[in-house]
C-alpha cells in the first residue's frame, strides 16, 4: 500500500508539474533540508555548549549573512559561497531559537519533538496543497498576508507597553495562521518565479525556511503555555 501510494504521488507530481519546475523544487527542498540541519546544530550549540549563545551578536550575524546571500547574485559559479551564507544564516537562526527551547525544556522536554512533528506535518500539508493546486490559486493571498503581517507587528509593538496575555495569545495564533498561509503563497510563488526564469533555488529556500521556523517557534510556545496551564490546574 505505501509503495502504491508513493507511485501514485510520483506519477501525479510528474504529470502535473513540468520538469524544470520539478527539478527546481527538488533543489529548493534539498537546500531547506540543509538549512534545518544547520539550525538544529545552532540550537544544540546554544543549549549544550559554551561556545556561542543567542544574543545581539547572533542576531547581527544572521542578518548580515542573509543580506550577503541576497546581495550576492547567483551566476552559476558562486553557489558554494551562497550556500555557505545560507548555512551560516540558518545556523545563527537556530542559535536564536535557543532561549525558547530552554523555556520549553524547563516546562516539558517532550514538547520539542511534538512541536517539530506538528510543524513538519503542517508545512508538508500546506506545501503539497500549493504544489498540486491550480496554477496561481494561492498567489492572491499575498495582499492579505502582508496586511495580516502589519497587524501582527502592531500587536507585537502594542504588547510591549500593555503586557496583555490576551494580545500575546492573539499574536501567537494569528502568527501561526499567517505563517501557514505563507507556506501556500511562497510555494506557489517559487514555482511561478521558476517558470519566469528565476533559477535561484538557494534564495527561494530561505522563504520556506522562515515559514517553517515561524510555525515551529509559535507551536513551541503555544504547547508550552498549554502544558503550564494544565500543571497549574492540577496543583
Which characteristics define this entry?
single chain; 235 residues; globular; membrane; Putative Bax inhibitor 1; Bax_inhibitor_1-related
Please give the structural blueprint.
Layout: H1 2-16, H2 19-48, H3 56-71, H4 79-107, H5 111-132, H6 141-162, H7 165-195, H8 201-234
InterPro entries: Bax_inhibitor_1-related (IPR006214)
Family: Belongs to the BI1 family.
Subcellular location: Membrane
Summarize the structure in words:
The chain is mostly helical and 235 residues long. It has one domain (2-9, 18-234). It has eight helices and no strands. The longest helix is centred in the C-terminal third of the chain and has 34 residues, at 201-234. It is globular, with a radius of gyration of 19 Å. It is a multi-pass membrane protein. Keywords: Membrane, Transmembrane, Transmembrane helix.
Find the count of extended strands (DSSP E, 2+ residues): 0
Average residue-wise pLDDT: 89
Mass-distribution shape: globular
Number of separate helices: 8
Give the SSE order as H and E letters. HHHHHHHH
Largest beta-sheet details: none
Fraction of residues in β-strands: under 5%
- Can you give the helix content as a percent range? over 70%
Secondary-structure-derived class? mainly alpha
Radius of gyration: 19 Å
How many structural units, i.e. domains?
A: 1
- The first-to-last residue Cα distance is 47 Å
Low-confidence stretches: none
